[in-house]
């Protein structure tokens, strides 16, 4: 497996014209992971904007997140941020309720609804959500629809929102996509994206969003619970748990919270063109912004974590 590269400038992304690498992922703001207060969610977005966050990611399946982001943007008097949303997966009852529509009509209506909710006339990036569930027999029509959105000026870039399956990989080309947003495959307990995915993307000049920086909470506030629950064979495997325990020791040695070490580790990886961080409330986004301002880890600590994972 190839190793991640220690970054020089952690703040800006060459793949996005020198814009910020930090992305506020809004999946926790809309209520799909548990109840939220809309006013608190709006306050979290406004706090982020006021403290330099200029990139946001949302989706129809994130509950009320698009509407909350739109209401916050309506109050914001500063520069318009970079906004991405998704099509293909629709709003469900919670994070585990999958409602899908990859038809041209369905994706068109979904995008129209998203633009209305966000109060925007276009989005900077549109992801095809849940690529592992896209019916490949209709992939040509799906891709044509996405490209039509781009031609019409409704979106500036097209991406894949999720980890592509092996069957989907032939469609990951620069002609089709500008960005891939992967999760659970590039963080402080798992570097499996370096087993081939990153090499493919770099060859195609496709940018990479590294999502789930805390590995669904294993590297954060669900550390003890995840160890207790054990591997689920799907999202969290035994190697993730073993690596998390080893990295927790490094965090303790550095007198640093595991979540801060994990986020700053991902900030330090050059192959992460952008890093998506989730925050459900004002307290969480405050901590994340503090970690961001602390910057990349010292190289010796970065190498220690990398070697621990790749051992």
Automatic annotation (TrEMBL):
Gene3D superfamilies: NADP-dependent oxidoreductase domain (3.20.20.100). GO terms for cellular component: cytosol. GO terms for molecular function: oxidoreductase activity. It comes from the Bacteria. Pfam families: Aldo_ket_red. Residues 21-306 form the NADP-dependent oxidoreductase domain. This is Aldo/keto reductase. It comes from Echinicola strongylocentroti.
């Amino acid at each position: 497996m190839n190793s991640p590269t220690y970054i020089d400038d952690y703040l800006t992304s060459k793949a996005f014209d020198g814009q910020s690498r930090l992305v506020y992922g809004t999946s926790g703001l809309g209520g799909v992971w548990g109840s939220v207060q809309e006013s608190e969610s709006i306050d979290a977005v406004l706090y982020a904007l006021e403290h330099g966050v200029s990139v946001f990611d949302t989706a129809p399946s994130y509950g009320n997140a698009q509407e909350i982001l739109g209401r916050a943007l309506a109050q914001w008097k500063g520069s318009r941020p970079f906004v991405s949303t998704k099509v293909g997966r629709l709003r469900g009852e919670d994070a585990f309720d999958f409602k899908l529509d990859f038809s041209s009509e369905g994706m068109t209506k979904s995008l129209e609804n998203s633009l209305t909710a966000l109060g925007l006339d276009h989005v900077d990036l549109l992801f095809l959500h849940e690529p592992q569930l896209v019916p490949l027999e209709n992939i040509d029509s799906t891709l044509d629809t996405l490209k039509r959105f781009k031609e019409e000026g409704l979106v500036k870039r097209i991406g894949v929102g999720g980890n592509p399956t092996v069957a989907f990989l032939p469609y990951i080309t620069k002609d089709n996509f500008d960005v891939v947003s992967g999760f659970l495959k590039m963080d402080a307990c798992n570097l499996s994206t370096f087993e081939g995915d990153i090499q493919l993307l770099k060859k195609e000049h496709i940018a990479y969003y590294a999502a789930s920086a805390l590995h669904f909470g294993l590297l954060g506030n669900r550390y003890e619970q995840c160890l207790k629950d054990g591997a689920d064979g799907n999202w969290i495997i035994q190697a993730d748990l073993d690596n998390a325990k080893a990295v927790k020791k490094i965090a303790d040695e550095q007198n640093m919270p595991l979540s801060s070490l994990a986020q700053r580790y991902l900030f330090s990886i050059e192959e992460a063109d952008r890093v998506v961080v989730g925050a459900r409330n004002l307290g969480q986004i405050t901590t994340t912004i503090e970690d961001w301002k602390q910057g990349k880890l010292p190289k010796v600590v970065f190498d220690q974590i990398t070697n621990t994972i790749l051992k």
